[in-house]
Amino acid sequence: MPSPDGVQFVHEVYPLLLRDCGFPACHGAPERFLRVLGPGRVRETNDIELNDAPLLREVELSYARAVSMLATSDEPVDSLLLRKPLALAAGGQTHVGVDTFGQNLFRDRSDDDYQLLLAWALSHGEPPDADAVDRAFTDALAARELLEAAP
User: Fold this and answer.
1) What are phi and psi of 68, to 5 degrees?
2) How many angstroms separate the CA atoms of 121 and 71, rounded?
3) Model confidence over 61-115: pLDDT tens digits?
4) Separation in Å, CA 119 to CA 46, 49, 112, 114
5) Rounded Cα distance, 46 and 150, in Å
6) Predicted TM-score (pTM) of this structure
7) Cβ atoms 48, 60 nearer than 8 A
8) Listed residue (33, 54, 32, 34) closest to 43, CA to CA
9) How far apart, in whole angstroms, are the C-alpha atoms of residue 42 and residue 29?
10) Residue 33 CB: number of other CB atoms within 10 A?
11) Which of 87, 90, 80, 89 is nearest to 102 (CA)?
């Protein structure tokens, strides 16, 4: 089983998955194998406020499911995690999650977000821990405050 870096997942991949995949009708749905839970999307339980900080167990579940999607092939570029959101013309696989123009998330392998996912898939490290999750949320809040304070 692959073991990509948990800190990189928390800071780079998890926000990408939340942004592009974590919707209730997509990978926030309980029937989906790749499940992404967290702030602003679907929470683990109904008693968690939508915009509360991510819980370690939400990040751990999202990490574990993403890693399992990497384990579908010996080569990360051939894994379901990297092929499903890639356009068919670029070597991707059928995926219902398309944008408003009917295009897959990544038009080709040069897409910056595809390259971010690939770099993470090729990394090695420990799973996410509570400190990494707390730091990422604190950093995100600080960045948001800077944006809101900008003229």
Assistant:
1) -65, -30
2) 10
3) 999 999 999 999 999 999 999 998 888 888 877 766 555 555 567 888 999 999 9
4) 34, 32, 10, 9
5) 34
6) 0.87
7) no
8) 54
9) 8
10) 9
11) 87
pLDDT digits (tens, 9 = 90+) for 25-56: 888 899 999 999 999 999 999 999 998 989 99
In this structure, what token pair is assigned to residue 142?
């600080």
Q: In this structure, which amino acid lies at residue 144?
A: R
List, in order, residues 6 or more apart from 102 with CB less than 8 Å away: none
Q: Residue 5 CA to chain centroid, in angstroms? A: 13
| Chain length of the chain | 151
Residues with Cβ within 8 Å of residue 86, at least 6 apart in sequence: 92, 93, 104, 105, 106, 108, 109, 114
Name the DSSP class of 110: T
Q: Tokens representing 109? A: 């392998």
Amino acid letter at 132?
A
DSSP letter for each residue of 40-81 = TS--SSTTS-TTSPPPHHHHHHHHHHHHHHHTTSSSGGGSHH
What is the amino acid identity at position 22?
Answer: G
Which residue has tokens 């384990």? 71
In one-letter notation, the amino acid at residue 48 is I
